[in-house]
Amino acid sequence: MTDLVLDRVTLLTMDRERRQLDDGWLAVSDGRIEALGSGAAPAAARRIDGRGGVVMPGMVSTHSHVIDILLRGGLEQDRTLFDWLVNVYFAGTSAYTPEDCALAATLNLSEAARAGITTITDNWGVNNGDDAGRVAECAAATLGVYESSGLRVVFGRMFSDTAPAAWEGILGAYMAKLPAKTLDLATLGEPLDAAIARIEALIAAHHGAAEGRVSVCPAPIMAQLASPEALTAARELAERHGTVVPIHHCESPLNSRVFPESGPGLGATDYLNALDFLNERMLAAHCVWLDDRDIRLLAAHDVKVAHCPSCNSLLSSGAAPIPRLLAAGVTAGLGTDDANTSSNVSIMQEMRQAAYVAKLTNADPGALTAEKALEMATIDGARALGMEAEIGSLEVGKRADVVLFDTSGPHWYPRHLLPATIVYQAQAADVRTVLVDGRPVLDEREPTFLETEPAALHESAQQASEAIVERAGMGGLLARGWQSQSRV
Ligand code: FE
Question: Distance from the CA of 444 to the center of ligand 1, in angstroms?
Answer without folding.
Answer: 31
